[in-house]
Structure formats: structure tokens, C-alpha cells
Design a protein that fits this description.
Number of helices: 25
Radius of gyration: 28 Å
Distance between the termini: 88 Å
Helix content: 40-55%
Bound molecules: zinc ion
Strand order of the largest sheet: 14-15-16-18-17
Largest sheet: 5 strands, mixed
Number of strands: 27
Strand content: 15-25%
Length: 767
């Protein structure tokens, strides 16, 4: 029998009570059985081992050394083997009992129910057991000086465990847990699977959260004060990890290639919770931001099939293809089948694979069973192939025929399928009518005609974002403004606002001003309007954005306004941003945004203002972290002096990360290189990630040796990023200086063009 066991000292191995021979190479422990094991019989293997300071799996805080005040585990993907000899792969499940001895006064939490707690001198022994089968990557515990709040809900013990002193923040982060459990149970038709649910917040966590069965570990940076609550919420994280208790923990992906069955579902369920809690508009905007995140990865990094066997280490699969793209594909399926049928499928899937593993084919068969429909085409095009349908839509009003002609073209390139089958709804809004049509787009080009009584005010494509696709609108500014003003759905309005960025004119800015300033409007649409105005640029845009800075109250819209202002170089913008940064009445996140924008404006007072901002207290140190980024963008020797003070291990992790990644903005001097090499030796993977970010910002060939090392990083989630940064630098070297100069020229030309077109417009108005 082979057990995964890394970096241990094996003291003894017994099989059924008798000493057994074994071999150990530092990674795999092989146990030899005297006699062949009969099928169906039980063998007890007892391994006595020691592991001092595991390199991962169990983490002691502070991670960089010093006296430990907390310990916690992170098993996913394959790190449990660093502290527990075990078969460490998701496709086998076991019941778990853990006994943990900790100094008296500390609190221990782990999977399952607490069976026993016994004082032994200065120590205390805690014994936990979970009578459900789980994969080894979900075996977990945490130890620390914690405050515990406990309640019961429908027979489930709920525990909220936070570092002592943070008791006051529990309510804001976790008060929705009970309602979420009720909602998921109701939506899925399957009860929460464990006797208890503990959520424990730990310091210096290596992820946002980890869904260990019945004991989710979360970063303590999700805890926040009243002031942060206006633009920061824990619910997205809390609901995501809770949803995993069904998707991932109860039913587990058979292998990492099928990871999307964990992450796609958790992402979708969190979005569905959002829909229930804050409504359709927030939900729609969440779908848009999922699409943005997937397209960001697709355009800037790579395309892969959602289910892929091609990867270096499993950590590479925890990406925007598994999470948001997975969620959007599932949501598309829900819309094709109807949400009721979709929910019946989820119930059957969870019941059939209860405490077992499943893969994508299992899921497909379940949905085929409940719907009575053939779905191989769906999984083939969205899950087993890379890329996505890219639809380009044109439409025009035909006054003679009293009809709207809609032309839909599939424009995806060679990395995607030639033709997709895409269901699309179209909503046409007129003066006193509303027409809704459904089409299936399956060829490269389609033309549809819809008869309507009069010229439409707006044509809205896929109004509720029911279908996964990239969308471009090839229509004029007037049509786009029609959608922004008349459509009541978020998705078409956001798409129209984005296309308007390319059509820049002062008239459009004037038209969007009303939306930006209207506090009744959905904040997401207002924020998009602010970005569009900023992108269009010019004097009118500047005036409108400064006016918005005076008038707009919603903190998320203010953030967009402040960010858009960063594109302007005028002195008054710099002054306005300094006022925002200094103003304690502003929200933390608006001030943080102002710090970055300020650096972008090139304002002469930026350095002093940012230096001061390093001392402003804020949630998660966001203001100071953004100030460090701003100082990086300023890029002077004196800014480097300030930034380098935040690299040390006695600084909060967020600032160490921010300072490390800010180093990438400075010229790659020997000094900067030395600082980065030091950070690359940090024991915390997040600091090492900062080095990767810095390298991909600087694009300097001098970073290559550092990256070569980091692409073999022991922390799997850093591996792909390091490899990509390396490739990026190599490509950049090929393109060379010539290319950079061309881009600068182009930027200048664009600014000139904007200036001219505004002048022409003003002249036209006079005429
Ligand atoms: Zn997850």
C-alpha cells in the first residue's frame, strides 16, 4: 500500500497490530503486507511519524517566523500529505477523526463534532469526528486564541470563530449564514450535510476561504468595521464556501480536471444567493462581472477547455475558466432547461453521488434524465472545447416594411469552434409596445426580421443574460443611447455603455450625465457610465466627472468616478483627488481608489499626499496598499525609498504584498533586484506572488532568473503566473523598443483626435 507523505520522519509502521516492513523516499511511504489483503476485509495500518515545520499543509502564524500564535491547515489541492500520511487525491473518501493537543487557553476547531476535551497539565486534548466520507484535501483544523460564538439552527450547530478582540465584527460578516443554509436547502432540495458548520477566521491565510467539510477556514480580512460595510461585504465569500458543502464536499469532483463541478457550482450558488438577497439587477451585474473576469483571462492569458487534462500542477486549474466561466455555462444550461428542471437535476446529482465522486459525464447524464433531452452538444461546445461564441449584432429599422432587421454573426476565431448553437432572446421596445422573440443562432450568419408598429426606441439583445457568449454591438450612438435610456435590464445597458466608449463625443457625455448623477439608478449602470465618460475624455467629460465628485453619494459609483478621473492630467483633478484621499468622511475604498488615480494624474503634490496616506487606518489596509501602488507608479528614487520600508516581515501581509508588487514599477536597478530576490525567499506564498506581479509589470529581462525559480514554486497557485510572466518578458524582448514607441505615438494621436473632434463639435453647435 502506498501513502502520500512528504518530508516526514517515519518512526514505526504496524499492520493489524504487528510491526510491518516499509520503504520511504521522503514523498511516498510504501507499506508491505505479509499476506495479500482479501477483498472486503479491513486492515488497520498504524503509522507513527514526526514532521517538524511542514513546508505547507499546516501553517503557523506568523508564517515568516517568530513565536506562533495561530496554526491552520490548507489541504487543497494536494498538501494534506505534508502533515498526514494518506492517500491524497480527491477520488477516494474517508471518515475522519482528529485528536489535537494544544496549549491550555487556545481554541481548536476541526472537521465534525467535538467528542472530547480534556486538560492534561498545561495542555488540552481535543477530539473531533466527522461521520461522513470526505476527500483528504478537506481534512482541516485551526488553533488560536479565538473567541467563539455558537448558536443552533434546525439541528445544525453554527460556530463563528474569530481572533479574540474581533467579536464585534461577527454579526456583520456572518449574520446571513442561517438564511443562506435555508435558501440552499430549499433551492437544492438536499439538507445541509453535516451536524455542524464552523466558520473560522485566521490570520495570513493563503486564500480567501477554504470549504473544509463542516469547518470553513476564512481570511480574517473578511472581518470589517461599520465604515467598511458600505462598500465591502462578506456574503459573497460566506455563500461561496457554504455552497461548497454540497458541491465539492458532499459530491466531489472525481479528479482535478473536473474541478469546475466544485468551483463553477459554488460560484453560481453564491450569485443565486445574491439574486435572492439583493435582487435581479445585482445578479445581472454579477453575471457581467463573471464574463469580464473570464474574458480577461481569455484575452490576456489563455484559453482552455473547462475540463482539461493538460496542466502542469492542479493549482493551475483554479482559474477563471473553472470559476466564472463554469458558473456562466451552468446558468446557460439552467435557462435552456428552465430553472425548475435545472433544480431537479441538481437534486438528483446530489442524491445520486451523495458522499461520492462525480465527473462531467455523470452530470450530463443527470440533466439528460431529468429533462428528457440530448445534451451532448451543450457539453461539447461549452465544457470540452476551449473558447466561446462571439456574437456581433447589427440591427436597423426598415420604415417601408415596418420591421426591425437583426443580423447576428458568429465572429469567434480559430481558438473556438467554427459554429456554436446559441439561444438568444431579443426584446424590442417601442413607444407603446414591447416585443420579445427567441432565436437559436447556429450558423455563422443569421438575419431575423421582426415586424413592429413603429420605429423602436431600443433593441435589447439577450436582455437577462441567459446565454453564455461574448457580445459586440455594431450600431450607431443613437441606437446605443436608446438602449441605455429605455431598457430596464442591466446587461443590454452595460453592453451599450461600453460600445459608446468607442464613439466618443461631448454630446454622449451630456446624455450620460443624467444617469451618472441619478441616485435612483442602479449603481452598476452609473459606474459604467462614469467609465464611459472618462474614456471619451475631453473637457466636457472632465467637467461632468468633477461635478459627479461633488454630488454622487453611492460609494461604488464614487469609486468609478475617482478612477475615471485618474485619466486626466489637469491640476484641478490632482487637487480634487488629494481632497478625497484626505477626507475621513469618504469610504475606505473610495480613498484607496483616489490614491491610485492620483499617481496616474502626474500631479506634483502626489508624492507627499501618498506618503501621508500610508498612515491612514482602513479596512484590510486598502488605503495604504493603494498608496504603495501609487508611489510605485510615481517611480522616483525617493518613492522607492518609502516603498522599500514596507517589505519587512513585521509589516501586515497586505502591505508586504503591495510593496513587493509595487517594486515592478521602478526601473529595474540592482537595488530593486536585490529587494525582489529577498522577497522571493519569503516563506509566505503571497509575498512571492508579489514578486511575480512585479516582474510582469517591469517586463525587464533582468527578472528572468527570479521567475525561473518561481515557476517551480512549492505553492502551486504561483506556478502558472510565474511561467506566464516569464513568457511575457521573452515576447516583449522580441518585440523590442520599437513597439513601445509606436504605442506612445498612438496614445498621443488619440488625445489629439479627441481634442479636435470636440472643437469640431463646438463649431458645429455654433453654426
Ligand atoms: Zn471555491
Amino acid at each position: 500500500m502506498r501513502l502520500d507523505a512528504v518530508g516526514m520522519r517515519i518512526l514505526s509502521v504496524k499492520v493489524n497490530g504487528t510491526k510491518a516492513s516499509h520503504a520511504y523516499d521522503g514523498e511516498v511511504l510504501e507499506v508491505f503486507f505479509e499476506e495479500p489483503v482479501k477483498a472486503g476485509s479491513t486492515v488497520t495500518v498504524r503509522v507513527k511519524y514526526e514532521v517538524v515545520e511542514p513546508r505547507k499543509g499546516v501553517w503557523f502564524v506568523p508564517v515568516e517566523g517568530g513565536e506562533a500564535r495561530q496554526a491552520w491547515t490548507q489541504g487543497q489541492p494536494e498538501d494534506t500529505r505534508y502533515w498526514l500520511p494518506t492517500y491524497d487525491y480527491p477520488n477516494r473518501k474517508a471518515r475522519v477523526e482528529l485528536t489535537i493537543r494544544a496549549r491550555k487557553g487556545l481554541v481548536v476547531v476541526a472537521n465534525g463534532s467535538l467528542l472530547e476535551r480534556r486538560v492534561e497539565g498545561d495542555y488540552e486534548r481535543w477530539r473531533f469526528r466527522l461521520d461522513s466520507r470526505i476527500p483528504t484535501y478537506l481534512i482541516a483544523f485551526a488553533v488560536g486564541d479565538f473567541y467563539v460564538e455558537r448558536e443552533e439552527h434546525n439541528g445544525i450547530v453554527l460556530e463563528y470563530v474569530v481572533p479574540r478582540g474581533r467579536e464585534g465584527d461577527i454579526e456583520r460578516s456572518f449574520s446571513k449564514t442561517k438564511e443562506m443554509i435555508d435558501f440552499f436547502e430549499e433551492y437544492l432540495g438536499v439538507k445541509y450535510p453535516y451536524p455542524k458548520y464552523t466558520q473560522v477566521c485566521v490570520e495570513e491565510f493563503v486564500a480567501g476561504g477554504m470549504e473544509n467539510a463542516s469547518v470553513t477556514i476564512l481570511t480574517d480580512s473578511t472581518l470589517h468595521d461599520e465604515k467598511a460595510h458600505v462598500d465591502f461585504r462578506s456574503e459573497p465569500l460566506v455563500s461561496h464556501e457554504l455552497a461548497h458543502q454540497w458541491f465539492g464536499d458532499l459530491v466531489t469532483c472525481r479528479d482535478w480536471s473536473n474541478l469546475w463541478l466544485n468551483e463553477g457550482f459554488a460560484t453560481l450558488m453564491a450569485a443565486l444567493w445574491k439574486r435572492r438577497e439583493v435582487g435581479e439587477e445585482e445578479f445581472a451585474y454579477e453575471l457581467v462581472s463573471m464574463m469580464d473576469s473570464y474574458l480577461g483571462e481569455y484575452k490576456g492569458r489563455y484559453a482552455r477547455p473547462i475540463v482539461s487534462r493538460v496542466y502542469g500542477v492542479p493549482g493551475e486549474l483554479f482559474d477563471a475558466h473553472s470559476y466564472p466561466k463554469g458558473a456562466l455555462v451552468l446558468w446557460t444550461l439552467a435557462n435552456i432547461l428552465g430553472e425548475d428542471v435545472f433544480r431537479r437535476g441538481l437534486k438528483l446529482y446530489l442524491e445520486r453521488y451523495f458522499e461520492k465522486n462525480a465527473d462531467t459525464e455523470d452530470l450530463r447524464k443527470v440533466f439528460e434524465e431529468v429533462s428528457g433531452r440530448q445534451l451532448d452538444w451543450f457539453f461539447e461546445q461549452y465544457v470540452y472545447n476551449a473558447g466561446h461564441p462571439a456574437l456581433k449584432v447589427k440591427y436597423k429599422w426598415l420604415p417601408e416594411e415596418k420591421a426591425v432587421e437583426i443580423e447576428v454573426e458568429q465572429t469567434q476565431g480559430k481558438d473556438s469552434l467554427e459554429e456554436y448553437r446559441v439561444p438568444i432572446e431579443v426584446l424590442i421596445l417601442g413607444k407603446d409596445y414591447e416585443v420579445r422573440r427567441e432565436y437559436i443562432v447556429e450558423r455563422r450568419r443569421h438575419v431575423f426580421r421582426v415586424s413592429v408598429p413603429s420605429k423602436p426606441k431600443a433593441v435589447c439583445i439577450d436582455p437577462e443574460f441567459k446565454s453564455f457568449k461574448a457580445l459586440t454591438l455594431d450600431v450607431g450612438a443613437e441606437e446605443l443611447l436608446g438602449v441605455v435610456k429605455s431598457c430596464r435590464y442591466v446587461y443590454p445597458r452595460v453592453m451599450a455603455l461600453r460600445v459608446l466608449r468607442e464613439k466618443g463625443s461631448a454630446k454622449i457625455v451630456e446624455d450620460l450625465r443624467g444617469i451618472l448623477l441619478d441616485e435612483e439608478e442602479f449603481w452598476g449602470v452609473r459606474a459604467e457610465a462614469a467609465r464611459t465618460i472618462g474614456n471619451i475624455g475631453g473637457n466636457t467629460a472632465l467637467k461632468v466627472l468633477l461635478e459627479a465628485l461633488e454630488k454622487v453619494k453611492h460609494p461604488k459609483v464614487r469609486r468609478a468616478v475617482v478612477s475615471a478621473l485618474g485619466d486626466f492630467k489637469e491640476k484641478e483633478v490632482g487637487e480634487a483627488l488629494v481632497r478625497v484621499l484626505e477626507n475621513e468622511e469618504e469610504s475606505y475604498y473610495v480613498r484607496a481608489e483616489a490614491a491610485v488615480s492620483l499617481a496616474r494624474t502626474g500631479y506634483e503634490g502626489a508624492f507627499e499626499a501618498l506618503k501621508k496616506a500610508l498612515d491612514y487606518p482602513s479596512h484590510n489596509h486598502v488605503i495604504a496598499a493603494s498608496a504603495l501602488e501609487g508611489l510605485g507608479r510615481i517611480g522616483t528614487e525617493e518613492a522607492l525609498e518609502v516603498v522599500s520600508k514596507y517589505l519587512d516581515r513585521d509589516r501586515p501581509l497586505q502591505l508586504r504584498y503591495a510593496a513587493t508588487s509595487a517594486l515592478g514599477y521602478f526601473p529595474t536597478s540592482q537595488k530593486v533586484l536585490d529587494l525582489l530576490s529577498r522577497q522571493a525567499r519569503s516563506l509566505h506564498p503571497r509575498v512571492r506572488r508579489g514578486v511575480v506581479v512585479a516582474a510582469s509589470r517591469s517586463l525587464s529581462p533582468r527578472m528572468i532568473p527570479l521567475l525561473s525559480k518561481l515557476q517551480r514554486d512549492i505553492w502551486q497557485f504561483n506556478v502558472r503566473a510565474a511561467r506566464e510572466a516569464l513568457e511575457k518578458i521573452k515576447k516583449h524582448m522580441e518585440k523590442g523598443e520599437e513597439y513601445r514607441k509606436l504605442r506612445e505615438e498612438l496614445e498621443k494621436l488619440r488625445a489629439e483626435e479627441r481634442r479636435l473632434s470636440e472643437r469640431v463639435e463646438r463649431l458645429e453647435m455654433k453654426v
